[in-house]
C-alpha cells in the first residue's frame, strides 16, 4: 500500500491509500463524515477487496491527511476529480463505493459527470437536510463508541460556513451509471427510506439490498463482512454473473 496525494482545482491537497496489486479494475472508496482512509474499518475493507481489485481509499477534505475543511458534499466532488482522473488513466474500469455522505458523493459524481463504470452507494442520504442523525439512539452512539479512534477524531475539520448543496434526489434521474444501493434496516443516522427513495427514482440499471439487522454505512460491513463483500463483488461482476439474492 502506497500513500499518494492529489491537488484539487480549488487548491486542496487530498490524500489516498493506493493498494496496487496489478488488477485492471479499481474500487475507489469514499468514506463518509468522520471516517478516514486510515480508520480501522476502511483499512480492513480495503484489504478485503484487494483479493479481486486494486483499491484507492481517499480522505475527503477536512479529514485525515487531506487538507481543507469538510463541506458536507458541497465541494467534495472537487476531491474526487483528480483521483478519478488518475484512476481512469491507469485502469480499464473504475468503480465508486461510497458510504453515507460518501455514498451521496458517488451518486452526485455519476449523475453530474457519468465518468465511472459502476457505483455502490451504502446508506446514502437523498437530501442532507433530511438526515435524521439520531445520535442519542443506541444504534448510533454505541457503534460510534466502539469505533473510537482519537487520532481520527482530532483530524476532522468541518467548515463553519453553510454551503449550498446539490441534493442527490434532485439529480438521481440523470444517472446512467449502474448503481447498487445498500442500506441497513436498523439505521437511525440515515434511515433506509433515503436509499430506497433514491433507488426508486433512479432510471439506470440498479439493485437495492437491505441488510435488515444492520445499521449505518461501514457498520454494515463490520457486522457481516463476508456477506457484504460477496454482495459487492457480485454487483461489480454482474455483467456476467447474477447478483446474490436480497439480504
Give a description of the structure.
The chain is α/β, with parallel strands linked by helices and 247 residues long. The protein has a single domain, classed as 3-Layer(aba) Sandwich (Rossmann fold), CATH 3.40.50.1820. It contains nine helices and eight strands. It has helices at residues 40-49, 77-90, 101-113, 138-146, 150-155, 168-171, 192-201, 218-223, 225-236; strands spanning 2-7, 13-19, 25-30, 54-58, 93-99, 118-122, 179-184, 206-211. It has an eight-stranded mixed sheet, with helices on both faces. Strand 7, helix 7 and strand 8 (206-211) form a beta-alpha-beta unit. The longest helix has 14 residues, at 77-90. The radius of gyration is 16 Å and the shape is globular. The chain starts with a strand and ends in an 11-residue tail after the last helix.
List keywords for this structure.
Rossmann fold, 8 strands, 34% helix, single chain, 247 residues, 9 helices, eight-stranded mixed β-sheet
In terms of per-residue confidence, which ranges show pLDDT below 50 for 5 or more consecutive residues?
A: 240-247
Question: What percent of the residues sit in helical stretches (DSSP H or I)?
Answer: 25-40%
Count of helical regions: 9
Structural class: alpha/beta
The count of β-strands is 8
- One letter per element, helices H and strands E, the order comes to EEEHEHEHEHHHEHEHH
Give, in spatial order, the strands making up the sheet with the most strands. Answer: 1-2-4-3-5-6-7-8
CATH architecture: 3-Layer(aba) Sandwich
Mean pLDDT: 93
What percentage of the residues does DSSP assign to strands (E)? 15-25%
Radius of gyration: 16 Å
Our measurement of the CA-to-CA distance between the termini, rounded to an integer number of angstroms, reads 32 Å
